[in-house]
Specification:
alpha+beta, Alpha-Beta Plaits, 3-stranded antiparallel beta sheet, elongated
């Protein structure tokens, strides 16, 4: 897995390692892939400037399959070379244990009170007296109030 992670670092065309066929630019730069094993768990950090849709889930799947010996170096070259039309079927890793964190944007976001109020009204309308949903809604509203987002 670590060997393959080093091979996909840098700039590559991830068109075949993303969700959908697209005409958009799929050239991406992976800066860091860090793999650690702790007991029965793998902790994989992937750092890049931007990602294609589904790219991380497919990279995780690629690394796991490579670790099992199911993907070889030649398979990786098929996936990363946009000129070669032959490809390898690569499934998405399950999103259940993936966590997105530490996002940095180069723009400043501003809170729009009217938009937040409209979102709350919409959620309230959609709940339509569902007790569990009502509890979730109240928790969400409390969170917004506590963090001075209302």
């Amino acid at each position: 897995m670590k060997y393959f992670s080093k091979l996909i670092l840098g700039i590559h065309d991830f068109k075949k390692i993303s969700s959908r066929k697209t005409t958009k630019n799929t050239l991406r730069r992976l800066i860091v892939i860090n793999i650690k094993k702790h007991e029965n768990f793998l902790h994989i950090d992937i750092i890049g400037r931007s990602f294609c849709r589904g790219m991380i889930r497919k990279i995780i799947s690629l690394l796991i399959e490579a670790g099992k010996g199911n993907i070889k170096y030649n398979d990786l070259s098929l996936l990363l070379n946009p000129i070669i039309t032959k490809t390898l079927a690569l499934k998405h890793a399950s999103p259940s244990n993936l966590i997105l964190y530490d996002i940095k944007y180069s723009v400043t976001f501003h809170r729009v009170s009217k938009a937040i109020a409209e979102l709350i009204d919409h959620i309230n309308y959609e709940l339509n007296n569902n007790e569990l949903s009502e509890q979730i809604f109240m928790s969400f509203k409390s969170y917004l109030a506590k963090n001075q987002l209302l």
